[in-house]
Amino acid sequence: MRLRNITGSREAIAGSPYVVPEALMCQCPGRWREMFGNGNPIHIEIGMGKGKFIHTMAKGHPHINYVGIEKYSSVLIRAVHKMEAEELPNLKFLRMDAEDIGKVFGAGEVDRIYLNFSDPWPKDRHAKRRLPSRQFLARFRVILKPGSRLEFKTDNRELFDFALEELSPAGWAADQVTYDLHSDPRLMEGNVMTEYEEKFSCLGNPICKYISRPGQ
């Protein structure tokens, strides 16, 4: 789907107090708790879209620090607008490519990672660009605290099957797996829906989810 460019979004983001300036991102590793002003756990969402999920999570869990990551300015600006309407002290944003995740978080600095309805990159030659690929799992392993977990949701069955197949070669294991999240009472407990999840579930598309951890 082609993104609609929002004129001035890049400039608005650069001037927003809720977005970490790009020039300062290289100084972030090892300093996130200092930046938030507390020692609370850090949860990140990679590819947060318009920010509904992470804003809801941050509002509902004030003792957890959240960082939302989005590549596209025209999408991130919607999350910035949510913060302008309802500011939350435990939520910050980054405009960046997920490939650079290791440049903004230090080893073992993150307590949980959320991947929600990630771009499927359907062509085989683009497999390594998929966020649940073994290449990205290797990056995530470094920044995750030992014993922490990654949660992945999608309505794309092919991408989900691919994601499950990538776990073992990457040295990860799935703790919980479902091919129909909304029919699973245990995994639905506390579930917060994204914009895409609301849309696809209303269309009758089953939502797949796994919770996984890197091996020792």
Give keywords:
31% helix; single chain; 216 residues; seven-stranded mixed beta sheet
Unreliable segments (pLDDT under 50, ≥5 consecutive)? none
Strand line-up of the largest beta sheet: 3-2-1-4-5-7-6
Mean pLDDT: 94
Kindly state the number of beta strands.
7
Rg over alpha carbons:
17 Å
What fraction of residues sit in β-strands? 15-25%
| Number of helical regions | 8
What are the secondary-structure elements, in order, as H or E? HHEHEHEEHEHEHHE
Description:
The protein is α/β, with parallel strands linked by helices and 216 residues long. Helices cover 31% and strands 22% of the residues. The chain contains eight helices and seven strands. The chain has helices at 9-14, 32-36, 52-60, 73-85, 134-143, 157-167, 185-188, 195-202; strands at residues 42-46, 65-70, 91-95, 110-116, 144-154, 172-178, 208-214. Strands 3-2-1-4-5-7-6 form a seven-stranded mixed beta sheet, sandwiched between helices. β4, α5 (134-143) and β5 (144-154) form a beta-alpha-beta unit. The longest helix has 13 residues, at 73-85. The protein starts with 8 loop residues before the first helix and ends with a strand.
